[in-house]
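Quick one:
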Amino acid sequence: MAKEREQKDQRKGKQRKRREKDNSWQERVVQIRRVSKVVKGGKKLSFRAIVVVGNEKGQVGVGVGKAGDVINAVRKAVTDGKKHLITVKINKASSITHVSNGVAGGAKVFMRPAAPGTGVIAGGAVRTVLELAGIKNILAKQQGSNNPLNNARAAVNALEQIRSFSEAAQERDIPLEQIYS
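Output:
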């Protein structure tokens, strides 16, 4: 009987840890849009949700979900966002290491590192992506399209291209000190 209780407590502990791990993720809905599809019997309405998922520790993803109701669309978008996670290199000043450009569809996003205390200077979906990635000081500019999905994907694309100084030194086969000088 004592063994069974002990095993039950262990299972509860594992479930609690799993829940805590899930709680570290934050999700923000960027857009919910009602879309329709023309079928033989008329129009079929559904909802499309764009959600940004991140843990504010350098991981972020953008997901899209479609369903007949909003709640299921958001749920699908969150799962999609967790499937498309990327890891972002953040420096000690809670910024990025170098200038970066990202493109998705007709949207272009330009990102530049900023000094500590600057904050996140960006708009719309790009701001959401940067905040959930854990970046605190950055300058970003959206160019081209106003589409929130393409802007969010362009922001993720720009963050994917960022390399740390040690990675750049290793790629160029030079010592790390030479990059700093």
